[in-house]
Design a protein that fits this description.
Elements (H helix, E strand, L loop, with lengths): L11 E4 L5 E4 L11 E3 L6 E2 L1 H4 L6 E2 L4 E3 L1 H5 L11 E5 L3 E7 L4 E2 L4 E4 L6 H10 L1 H6 L11 H5 L2 E4 L2 H45 L4 H4 L9 E4 L4 E6 L12 E3 L5 E2 L2 E2 L5 E3 L3 H7 L6 E4 L1 E2 L8 E3 L14 E6 L6 H8 L2 H10 L1 E3 L2 E3 L2 H5 L2 E4 L2 H43 L6 H6 L10 H14 L3 H15 L4
Parallel strand pairs: 4-9, 5-8
Antiparallel strand pairs: 1-11, 2-10, 3-6, 7-8, 12-24, 13-21, 14-17, 15-16, 18-20, 18-21, 19-23, 22-23
Helix pairs in contact: 3-6, 6-12
Length: about 475
């Protein structure tokens, strides 16, 4: 037993190895496809990857099964339903309850529980101590918790009746948390559609339709090629930048995103005075990505709203555009470049070279721009800025709420295992937590039963081998 002043006096603080058998897994030779079978057809088998992004409590099988030959040739062991499946490396702390007999690879340390411990309760407890388990991992390439250390994980043992009450309460509370989280996670997509609709309305004239009734602005808009409304289009510098601060700051390709220019994550480049003058950025310059590994970021545009460096250069996979301000303001062209029409034009002309996707300046110059009057452009920019700022505020509020919800799960688990969720229940049900129903009596029964049994790992391996040999279907 261990000391823990934070749990009710009716509970016991133990090491999990005092009440559960710790069973490791195994993997047959991966080079032999006959060692494996289609998921759900032979012997269920898990790897930690099967629990990645897996949110259910119970699991029946993984991405593939073991064949009888694969099972027999490996150290994998078939464990009973109710076993706690706990990943012990890459990463430490994924957990699920076996819904049926199941085996795992060596990336698990599994806990075979006695009948006197509710598996749902134990599942939630292991979730609550993931940080403790991670701190007990050792290794250089990746952290792993050994079988010996797995047995030393803490475990809180309430009376059995209270275990079930705690598990039921956590089922209800954490389901509510997950539902709230799911609703919040849908909102960014709604905001994305809202931003797209704002841009569509801006470039189509719908956003300023009422405004035009009180002005002399021309509509429909005149379509002009980009080349007709700019003074300059120039690719950036091709020499390789350095990371040690020699020369002048130069942007990365990833610095440019729609409506966003990152001037913090930069490198440096030594250049001549002539190149410094030619490739230095100025306020109101527009930057387009010429190449990127993802088509989503090819041709996206950001305006230099202000400079955070005395000199700021740009690399050759970015294109600098300087507009004719008598025809178009940079803010409006930045909006147009993010619109559906502009993006579809870009997508139609993207070419792939050595895994990189790109568009040429020549093709970019041919992009048709629906051009309102300067006065209407100014009004469009004002309205778009206002609406997108509103969306940004909402998104920040949602992100803050999601952070609180994510913390709420661990907070609820912590309350549960300090006894706070069942404080009143204990007062109302003293007979269910004392005498033969006490945690002390429960632990004694577990010890007696474990002393009578062989280690679960060897027993389940033999039992399953015999079952497979006797199965007429094999």
């Amino acid at each position: 037993m261990t000391d823990s002043p934070q749990v009710p006096e009716q509970w016991l603080s133990l090491l999990i190895g005092e009440v559960a058998d710790v069973v490791a897994g195994g993997t047959p030779k991966a080079s032999n496809p006959d060692n494996f079978a289609e998921s759900g057809t032979q012997i269920p088998w898990l790897t930690p990857a099967d629990l990645s992004k897996y949110s259910e409590k119970y699991i029946s099988y993984g991405a593939r099964d073991l064949s009888k030959a694969g099972y027999e040739s490996s150290s994998a062991k078939l464990m009973p339903a109710g076993t706690l499946l706990f990943s012990s490396r890459a990463p430490i702390g994924y957990v699920a309850v076996a819904a049926n007999e199941i085996s795992t690879n060596q990336g698990f340390k599994n806990f075979v529980l006695p009948a006197e411990i509710d598996s749902s309760y134990a599942y939630y407890f292991l979730r609550s101590i993931r940080d403790v388990a991670e701190s007990m991992g050792t290794g250089t390439t990746f952290k792993e918790i050994s079988g010996a250390n797995a047995k030393k994980l803490p475990f809180i043992l309430p009376p059995l009746a209270e275990q079930k009450v705690i598990a039921d309460k956590l089922d209800t509370l954490l389901a509510q948390v997950e539902n709230t989280k799911a609703r919040l996670e849908r909102i960014p997509q709604i905001l994305k559609r809202f931003r797209q609709s704002v841009l569509a309305a801006a470039v189509s004239g719908r956003l300023t339709e009422e405004w035009r009734e009180h002005s002399s602005s021309q509509f429909p808009y005149e379509n002009r090629e980009l080349s007709e409304i700019i003074h300059e289009m120039r690719n950036g510098l091709s020499p390789k930048p350095n990371e040690d601060g020699r020369g002048h700051p130069i942007l990365r390709i990833s610095s440019v995103r729609p409506f966003s220019l990152d001037q913090i994550d930069i490198r440096h480049l030594e250049v001549s005075e002539k190149d410094k003058e030619r490739y230095s950025l100025q306020p109101d310059d527009l930057l387009f990505t010429r190449y990127n590994g993802s088509i989503e970021f090819v041709g996206v545009c950001a305006r230099v709203s202000q400079l955070n460096h005395d000199t700021l250069l740009y690399p050759d996979k970015l294109i600098r555009v300087r507009v004719d301000k008598a025809q178009v303001i940079p803010e409006f062209l930045e909006i147009f470049a993010a619109s559906f029409e502009a993006r579809q034009y870009i997508y139609s002309l993207v070419k792939s070279t050595s895994g990189q996707k790109g568009i040429s300046g020549k093709d970019l110059k041919l992009m048709k721009v629906a051009l309102p009057t300067i006065s209407e452009q100014i009004e469009i920019v004002r309205r778009v800025d206002q609406l997108l700022a509103h969306a940004d505020r909402i998104e920040q509020q949602i992100n803050n709420a999601l952070a609180r919800v994510n913390n709420l799960t661990q907070s609820i688990l912590a309350k549960a295992f300090r006894g706070e969720l069942t404080e009143q229940w204990r007062k109302d049900n003293p007979e269910l937590i004392s005498g033969e129903n006490s945690a002390e009596a429960l632990l004694e029964r577990i010890k007696v039963e474990r002393a009578r049994q062989k280690p679960a790992g060897r027993r389940t391996k033999v039992r399953k081998t015999e079952k497979l040999q006797n199965d007429p279907g094999n």
